[in-house]
Design a protein that fits this description.
The chain is mostly beta strands and 390 residues long. Helix content is 14%, strand content 47%.
Length: 390
């Protein structure tokens, strides 16, 4: 989850690590904030407004675990960012594998390619996180059942309702060792009131409008000191982070009738690059609250996130956003860009970049590389119309 409060926590911990070279202090500070950090470059460019962005690109499972079942296929995603540029060389990197088929999705961060970790140049790895997720898509389940029975329902053309959960466990590199377990749960609902191509065969032109709502909550954390030789007080429990948001997407697939304006341009990009234009608007409201625990006082923070994403012919992506966190001192814009390289039908590789603001002048830059293969499209002749992977 992205918020200014966890950002300040990790910034303070990383600064202490750089100035005092205290591995114990750094690990205890990072352990509290690691599950809250959002590594996604897509959400970063959109001001963090991505809890309802369950379409296109690489959906951000850190903001909403329900996305794991929405986009079909197999994926691998690697992200990296420097947490406190200009103060310390502390980096946060993640590697996540996903698989979704017939409305059932699973995800893992940590196996077999390494997980999410905070790494300092001198001290080495400070914290590592292992996460496993599971999700269900109602439209995917109903459509799969329809195909098996020989009566395709095409429910996904009209709406979808998805649920997902992630379990995250931190392993600290400090001394004594600190472990923390968290649960992240999310919901995603989409409604498609307009699709001029609905019921037509092929990949003809037309317009499509999607409306979506997303909700996620991270809570139920429990910290444990694994060493019995020291009586240090465990770090404070993670705050409860609740996020609600909405998103709107407009797709234009271009003309497909000979002689109509744009038909020649559409035909030139018919090989897996439609829709020609994909425009999304999103807004999230984030609430972060924590009761008093030990030396940590109680606090509450509300943050609003606004985002815009525009994709041209499924190749080039531009993103802009704004973060309104007055309590955290972050009321600044964000921006990002992406590039998609189609490999073969139903598969592609992506690179995304984002600039995320901090309360001090230096910005955090996120980098993300993702590979995705949809077996239904690539090997079974499914419809690669751009709905699931624009």
């Amino acid at each position: 989850m992205t918020s200014s409060t966890p950002g300040r926590l990790i910034g303070q911990g990383a600064t202490l690590a750089a100035l005092l070279a205290g591995a114990l202090l750094a690990s205890r500070a990072a352990a509290q904030a690691l599950p809250l950090l959002d590594p996604g470059a897509r959400s970063g460019g959109m001001g963090g407004a991505a809890v309802a962005m369950g379409w296109g690109g690489t959906s951000d499972l850190w903001l909403n675990p329900a996305f794991v079942s929405v986009t079909p296929g197999f994926g691998a995603q690697v992200t990296t960012q420097q947490l406190v540029p200009g103060l310390a060389d502390v980096r946060f990197a993640t590697t996540t594998l996903t698989a979704a088929l017939a409305g059932i999705g699973v995800s893992t961060t940590g196996r077999p390619l390494g997980g999410a970790s905070i790494h300092e140049e001198i001290l080495g790895e400070l914290e590592s996180l292992r996460a496993d997720g599971f999700g269900l898509s109602l439209a995917g389940l109903l459509d799969a059942a329809g195909r098996l029975s020989g009566n395709p329902a095409h429910v996904a053309d009209y709406a979808d309702l998805a649920w997902g959960r992630q379990w995250k466990r931190i392993e600290s590199g400090g001394f004594p060792s600190l472990e923390s377990a968290t649960r992240d749960e999310g919901w995603f609902a989409r409604w498609t009131p307009v699709d001029s191509r609905r019921g037509r065969t092929g990949s003809g032109g037309g317009m499509r409008l999607d409306l979506a709502y997303g909700h996620s909550q991270l809570d139920r954390s429990q910290d444990e000191m694994s060493s019995s030789f020291f009586s240090f007080e465990p770090a404070a429990r993670l705050p409860v982070v609740q996020r609600d948001g909405g998103a709107l997407r407009l797709l234009w697939f271009g003309a497909d009738t000979p002689g109509e304006p744009g038909a020649a341009f559409t035909d030139a990009f018919r090989g897996g690059l439609s829709p020609l234009l994909n425009l999304s608007l999103a807004w999230d409201h984030e609430s972060v609250s924590q009761s008093a625990s030990g030396a940590f006082p109680a606090y509450h923070d509300d943050v609003d996130h606004y985002g815009l994403e525009a994709t041209l012919v499924r190749l080039l992506v531009a993103r802009f956003g704004y973060v309104d966190d007055r309590n955290g001192g972050i009321t600044k814009p964000t921006w990002g860009a992406g590039l998609r390289l189609p490999l073969e039908r139903g598969s592609d590789v992506r690179y995304d970049f984002a600039s995320w603001p901090q309360s001090y002048p230096r910005r955090v830059y996120r980098h993300e590389v993702a590979l995705r293969i949809d077996p239904l499209v690539r090997w079974m002749g499914g419809d690669d119309d751009g709905d699931s992977t624009p």
